[in-house]
Amino acid sequence: MTIQLSSITKSFGGHRALDNVDLQIDEGTFFVVLGPSGCGKSTLLKSIAGLEPIDAGEIRLGGRIVAGNRVHVPPEERQVGVVFQSYALWPHMSVAGNVAFPLETAGTPKQQVSKRVQDCLETVALTPYQTRKPSDLSGGQRQRVALARCLAQGASTVLMDEPLANLDPHLRNSMEEELAEFHRTSGATTVFITHDQREAMALADKVAVMWDGRILQVDDPDTLYRRPLSQRVAGFIGRSAIIPVVIQQVDGATARFELAGASVEVDCPVGTRPGPAQVLLRPDHIVLSTGAYGLPVQIVRTTYRGGHWEVFVSVEGLEEPIMMNLSRRATPGERLQVEIIRGWVLPG
Ligand SMILES: Nc1ncnc2c1ncn2[C@@H]1O[C@H](COP(=O)(O)OP(=O)(O)OP(=O)(O)O)[C@@H](O)[C@H]1O
């Protein structure tokens, strides 16, 4: 289902947990809401699920108003599946029993229930575990039971509140793949909230970056990474340096400036003008120079990151060192010639 939020506001005491939030989530999208702890992510999800009434604004699911204008459709009538960080499985029921439960309470005929449960357990690769109790499963397997239960309900919209937060890194990676697969096979509109930008990048078709009750930017992961619209989003997504420059020339979507005697070209928003600006440089935008000329830099410190070294280099005229990746060991004090192959002028 398409999810539309218009000017949603929700306060707790004097604090605005949601401050005039507008969002359009297209049907079938894997939509990630990313933001630091306390920014309002869970409140947003609960509002969509119907677990938290909103103060103002309007929520539409599949075009139908479910909240706002004195309407509050209860959670069980919104046809959305919810998967929370704590799996909320029935401890006394078997895996199959947990998956069957919502179907049985909805009065689905017994034979259909059994067929559907088998199909859903198959999808999440839990068929061999169907007679076990949740307490005899790993965290990841329990998570999959919760997913199967969502799937069994036939929810065309699934809301997930940090479902991978309790898992160890190894399991997290395989669960990420399973979630992506779950999304592909079910085609369900998925809203997934996390404070982990790596997870957001890996899973999302679209990411909304949230801060202090507000949505700062909504874009696909690559655009968010390469073309953030503000310093805050730039700092929140991936690692970066933001350097002050004076733009000398702008040619369409390319801006030119000088740095330590070298001429550098970077991408810029349409309408950028010559003058002082802030430029975002990602580590992968800086490479060793292959030609005779380059930007002279000196290594300040290095950290091995498995397969590559993360290297901070100082550049004449810049107060802070900038970060790049090297595939070979490098030592502090070493001088290098580098090239800036890409960058982004932050909108002023
Ligand atoms: N029931 C409540 N009563 C009072 N304040 C609340 C309530 N629920 C949330 N808040 C406050 O609203 C703000 C947003 O909370 P929310 O749980 O939505 O944030 P979050 O981004 O999901 O955080 P986290 O990632 O830590 O779960 C916080 O300041 C929180 O303390």
TrEMBL record:
Keywords: ATP-binding, Cell membrane, Membrane, Nucleotide-binding, Translocase, Transport. Residues 3-237 form the ABC transporter domain. Signal peptide: none annotated. InterPro entries: AAA+_ATPase, ABC_transporter-like_ATP-bd, ABC_transporter-like_CS, ABC_transpr_FbpC, ABC_transpr_MalK/UgpC-like, Mo/tungstate-bd_C_term_dom, P-loop_NTPase, Transp-assoc_OB_typ2. CDD domains: ABC_Carb_Solutes_like. The keyword Lipid metabolism does not apply. GO terms for molecular function: ATP binding. It holds the Pfam family ABC_tran. Belongs to the ABC transporter superfamily. This is Iron(III) transport system ATP-binding protein. It comes from Roseibium denhamense.
